[in-house]
Every structure is written in structure tokens, then in C-alpha cells.
Amino acid sequence: MSLANGRAYLAIPGPSVMPEEVLRAMHRSAPNIYEGELIEMTAGLIPDLRAVARTAGRVAIYICNGHGTWEAALANTMAQGDRVLVPATGRFGHGWADVARGQGLNVEMLDFGKRDALDLGRVEAALRADTDHTIRAVLATHVDTSTSVRNDINGLRSVLDATGHPALLMADCIASLACDRFEMDAWGVDVTISASQKGLMVPPGLGFVWFSEKAAEARKRIGAVPRYWDWTHRAEPEMFYQYFGGTAPTHHLYGLRAALDLIKAEGIEAIWDRHEVLARAIWAACETWGATGPLEMNIADRGFRSHAVTALRIGAPHGSDLRQWVQDHAGVTLGIGLGMAEPGDPAWHGFFRIGHMGHVNAHMILGALGAIEAGLCALDIPHGSGGLSRAAEVIAGCVSRP
Ligand SMILES: *Cc1c(COP(=O)(O)O)cnc(C)c1O
Fold it and tell me: 3-state class of 171 per DSSP?
């Protein structure tokens, strides 16, 4: 007998759950890329993409994953040897820094470890020390998916303003977009990047780069931009193919249309609220289980936790055992711990993550938490009792938000 048969829930932090509406929209024969419906539909995506990032700025679409957008953002604004400041709060900050090095940039790292948000004071000190303003950009990760920390992007803008530093502010919103509140224009972000497969609920394959007027000006300073990454025509195409630098990602565009329709219908503020309540339910369960036994939230301070992903520590081998148990017995796939220990190190088996981004609702989250509670029991992993009930109380609104 298996209790896993039934609808599976891929609760890893990306790719996320795909809505039926998105899948249905993609299930069709190939459309004409030279005239007709697809061309008109694509133009209509642009204002909705702007709205999701809360910007009146321009947006370029790429056929790539998140890594591609890291490269695109830098290719359009930085020249070989330019200096960038990277406040890293997990694996993804280091990933963007590595891409910058690959493009010949001079990277200054500020490493905040694996369990903390970036410290604005240290960023401020680094900017003040740069009296000649050689730092051209600050590359920040809004939500680092490996640690589940959520950084204060608005605070970074305040620090740049307070120090009078002209560096561009870039934000990696691949995990956070359409999950955690993000306000590109109000927060003074110059370049925002994201990808299709997390909060945007579309399969991996589309990358997005939104850019401000200031970033567009920076593009003029540098000589050559590799043609494929150049955002100029993608953002303001004269011909349809220029949106994509070649053949359109036809089916992804239909999927994206359906996803943006869902986002519009619910409203971005309501989406942020839904993710917040669901995240609080997860925290309530995990904190209760962790009251006795080895389970521990990776990010202690609630104010710096993402509403899209939750990283947990439980000690080896419990992390891997629990993931295996809930997958085999309950049809829930949890995320591996990323960047917490090296694969091959026994400690690697002591972590897991819950992805709760995009198309997720109360019954899915309660179901996943129930599966985890069952797994903790079945595997005899010590834990505080009543975690699932605490989560239900948050969902019910019986617990007020602190
Ligand atoms: C997922 C993710 C990436 C990488 O995206 P890929 O599509 O895997 O290249 C980068 N940054 C953050 C914050 C992410 O969550």
C-alpha cells in the first residue's frame, strides 16, 4: 500500500507548482510567429510584467533561466574591470558574484554567512570607503533561496542615498517576485531580475530584466554588449523577433499570459498577503516542533524570513530521511539544503527546505505540514507536539500577526 498516490506536491523552491490554467494554455499546436495572435498577445504581456515588478521602467525578456539574467543585467551595464559590490547572504549571492567574475568584473564581496540578512551598516561603510566612486553597482539578492533570508532592498537604497553613492542598485528577485513584497520604483531599484519558474508559476525557460532610466543611461557608457544579451531591442523592438533575439518562446508565452491573468485577477497585494499568512503557518508549525528536538529555523528573526521559501536545519541524517519519507509516504517532495554543507559531507543530510511560492494555498501548506509531522513521528525524530494545530490556527486567523 502507498499513501503517496494522488496529486503530488513539488514543494521545492523552484520550479514551483504549475496552475492548470498555465498547463492548459501551453497545450496547443505551434502558433505562427510572423503574424496573428501571438504577436498581439506578446505586446500585452509587457504592461503586466511591469506591474508585477511595480515599475514604470522597461523590461527585456530572455529565453534563459535565472543564471542568464544575472549575466544579462551585467552585460548591459558593466565594462571589463568595473567594480561591483556583492553583499552575499547565501549561495545565490555568491553565484551572481561568480558570474560577474566570469564577465571580467572586479568583485568586492561582503559575506554575511548562511544565517543572517545583510547588514546595512557594513554596506554603508564599504560605500563610504569608496571615495572615488569606483563601485559601479551593488548586486543584492532580495530573497536568497538557499538560506531563505529576505534582505532589506529599500534599506540599501537609503544607504546609497545617505552616502551619495551613484552605484546602480540591482536586485535578484528570482525567488521573491510575486511572493514577497517588492516595489522596484518606490525602492529605487535600477535593475531587477527574475525568471519564470518560481512565483511566476511558468516552467523554467524565461528570464526577465527590468531596468530604470539610470540603468539605460549606464548602457550607453560601455562600448560593446554581446548582441544576444543587449536589452535595447528586446525592450523596444521594431520587429517582433527582436523581443527574443530570434524565435519566440511560443508556448512559454501562452503559459506566462495565463499566469499573469491569474496574478491580475487575485491582485499583487492579495498575493503578498496570501504568501505571508501561509509562511506564518509554516513558521508556527516549525517553531512548535523545534521547541524540543533538533529542528531549527535557519533564519531566527521573523522580520528577515522570506514568505516564499523556508530553510530548516534538523541534523544528519534526519533531513534526508525526512525528505525521503514524505515523498514515499505522502507525495510531498521537499527541497534539499542548498549550500549548507558540501555534497559528500555527512552533514549534508541535516537540512531541508520547504518551497511555498506561487500557486499554493492553505490546504496544500497544511497538507505538506501534516506530512512532515507524520514523518517526524514515523522516523522517531524528537519534536514538540501540536505543530500542525498551531499552523491551522494561523490559517484560521485565531492567532494575530505579531
Ligand atoms: C532560483 C534562483 C536563481 C537561479 O535561477 P536558475 O533558473 O536556476 O538559473 C538565482 N537567484 C535566486 C535568488 C534564485 O532563487
Answer: strand
Structural domain total, the chain: 2
Task: Verify whether ligand 1 is closer than 6 Å to residue 214 (CB atom).
Answer: no
Domain that holds residue 378: 9-16+267-399
Residue 402 confidence (pLDDT): 57
Domain end (from 231, 265, 299): 265
Which residue's CA lies nearest to atom 4 of ligand 1? Answer: 66
Structure confidence at residue 239 (pLDDT): 96
* Angle between the N-to-C axes of helices 362-378 and 268-289, in degrees from 0 to 180, rounded to the nearest 10: 20
Do 199 and 96 lie in one domain? The reply is yes
31: CB partners within 8 A, 6+ apart:
37, 38, 250, 254
Nearest to 305 by CA among 194, 208, 175: 175
- Atom 3, ligand 1: which residue's CA is nearest? 66
Mean pLDDT of the chain: 97
Q: How confident is the model at residue 33 (pLDDT cuts 50, 70, 90)?
A: very high
Check if 66 has its Cβ closer than 6 Å to any atom of ligand 1: yes
Please report the pLDDT score of residue 223 as a whole number.
Answer: 84
Is there a domain that residue 24 lies in? Answer: no
Average pLDDT over residues 91-98: 98
Q: Is 65 in the pocket of ligand 1 (CB under 6 A)?
A: yes
Atom of ligand 1 nearest to the CA of 175: 15
Residue 315 maps to which CATH number?
Answer: 3.90.1150.10
Specify whether 194 is located in the same domain as 248: yes
179 has pLDDT over 70: yes
CA of 91 to the centre of ligand 1 (A): 10
CATH number of the domain that residue 35 is part of = 3.40.640.10
| 3-state SS, residue 138 | strand
Q: Is the pTM of this model over 0.90?
A: yes
Integer Cα distance of 384 and 148 in angstroms = 23
